[in-house]
Amino acid sequence: MQNLEYKTADHQFRSRDEYANAKYDITSTWLAPFLAAGRLTVANVGCGGGEYNHRLAAFEVNVVACEPEPKAFALAYESAKTSDRIRVENYGLEKFAEEHGPFDVLVMHDVLEHIEDEAYAVDCVAKLIRPGGQAVISVPAYQWLFGYHDVQLGHYRRYTRTRLMDLFKPSFEILNARYYGSLFIPVTLIFSKWMQKPYPIGEVTANKWKQRVFRTACQFQRLLPEPIGTSVLIHLQKR
Question: What is the pTM of this model?
Fold first, then answer.
């Protein structure tokens, strides 16, 4: 069962999270050529506090986002008031797929692992994207890294790149697929898996020098084709 206090703190921290920001950079790099066409509508499923909504809106596309967690939704909703291109709704993937679609692009950062019925979630994603449309999806990597952080956030599972690709191959062409965060595997093992403790991220962000080192490490990994990692990202095109 998820820890809502832990999850809320995670959402609130996201705007300062260099790990998440580097993943957002990967997503933006993959989607940029497609988004450059303009006049597109993008779904951001499970948008958290809404940080990535604004990155999408900067491409001059219209963003329809959803977030089921009330406190995260409140953050995203308030943030969306600064842009006339962003709309945020307070529900999850399943209802979102019933109410909307198809979209030109879908982004889903770290959502699939929260949904118990994985097959139905994949069907919802396929329904939400028009033929020829694109999607980027990220999930935590490797079930053997499943630990305290996953339990507190309400995760059901973690993934390998192959397994994630296989889930979407029936309806999508795989344009890109990669791991990210190989340098953080020891941290995940020690703190989340073995010690059953939160990551020491507060200590890192409280120190400017440590924060700079953390940012450099995240961006370094973003630029490298990593054979392993703590996250998996895939870039899809709907058939």
Answer: 0.92
